[in-house]
Amino acid sequence: MNDYPSRHVPGAMAPIPSRTAPVPPLDDELASVLDDMVGIHPAIDLMVDALRFLALDKLTADKTQSALVTLAGADANVVSTIGLVVQRLTNPATNPGLAVLDAQTAKDVQQLGEQFAYDLAELAPGDKTTEAAALIDGI
Questions:
Q1: Which of 63, 91, 98, 130 could anchor a disulfide with 59, C-beta 3.0 to 4.6 Å?
Q2: Burial degree of 55 (CB within 10 A; 0-12, 13-18, 19+)
Q3: Could you list the pLDDT tens digit for every one of the 139 residues in the chain?
């Protein structure tokens, strides 16, 4: 209660976090998917931790809007970045681990990675998160 001013000014202070609705636990599907990704690579473990934190954090409407746009709606977003990383990992020129593949297989793997990145950009799934963010903002 010490965070509130001595006199009440409507809208001047956000509610005390302990008085807001608690964030529900992860549903079984999301928890299971996150758990299944652990242990593949330390970088993926970090992403899983970040996604779990984001899903369970107490976000304001403004922070929710920003998170949605950053995940998939902005020009630079997490989804398109994943597409670019997949494209890099499937390219033998940028992933020396693929040197063990024969030339045709390496070419096919690279084309599939390029197609994945292109599909993410072309299908523009971020349009939905941008629309959700706009609704939160009252646009």
A1: 63
A2: middle
A3: 455 455 545 455 555 555 568 899 999 999 999 999 999 999 999 999 999 999 999 999 999 999 999 998 888 889 989 999 999 999 999 999 999 999 999 999 999 999 999 998 888 777 888 889 889 888 6
Q: Which of 27, 29, 28, 18 is nearest to 58 (CA)?
A: 18
The encoded tokens of residue 58 equal 């107490």
Largest CA distance in the chain: 74
Rounded-to-integer distance, Cα 71 and Cα 53, Å: 14
Question: Are residues 16 and 46 in contact, defined by beta-carbon separation less than 8 angstroms?
Answer: no
* Contact call for residues 69 and 87 (beta carbons, < 8 A): no
Half-sphere exposure of 76 (CA within 13 A, CB side): 0
**Which residue stretches of 2-60 are H helix?**
28-37, 42-56
Cα-Cα end-to-end distance for the chain? 34
d(CA 90, CA 32): 27
